[in-house]
Amino acid sequence: MQREIRAHLAANFYWDVDFVNCQPSLMVQVLQHHEIPCPLLERYTENRDDCLQEVMDSCCVSRDAAKNLFIRLLYYGRVNTWVAEVQSQQSSLSSTDSQHVTVTVPAWVKSFQDELMEAGARLADMDDLADVREHCKRHKSSNFIGSVVALYLQTQERRCLEALVEAVQRDGRSIGALIHDGLHVLKESDADVIEPATLKKWSRAVFKKTQYMLDIAVKPFECNPAYLAGDDVHGQHDEDSQSLKETMTYDEMKACWENRVCKIIYPGGTYLRMHKDQVQVYSKQALLSAFEHVHYSSYSPRKNDKDGTLVSKRHAFLKTWLRDATIRTYDTMNVYPPPLTAPADEFNLWTRFDVERYHVTHLPVDTQSPGVQAIIEHLHILLGRTSAHTNYVLDWSAQLFQEPSKKTGIALLFKGEEGSGKNIWTNIFKLMMGSDKFLETSKPSTVLYGQFTSARRNKVLICINEANGKENHANNDVLKDMITSETFVCEAKGENATMLRCYDRFIFTTNNDNPVALSPDSRRFVVFDVSSELKGNTEYFKRLVRMTEDAHVRYEFYKYLMERDISRVDWYNDRPRTDGMARMIFSNAPLEFRYIHDLMLAQAQDADLTIPLDELFQGFLEWLARNRMDRYETNGVKFGLRMSKLIQSPRNTTGICGVSKDKIRGTMVYRFEPGVVLQELQARGWVE
Question: Quick one: fold of 589-684?
Answer without folding.
Answer: Arc Repressor Mutant, subunit A (1.10.10)
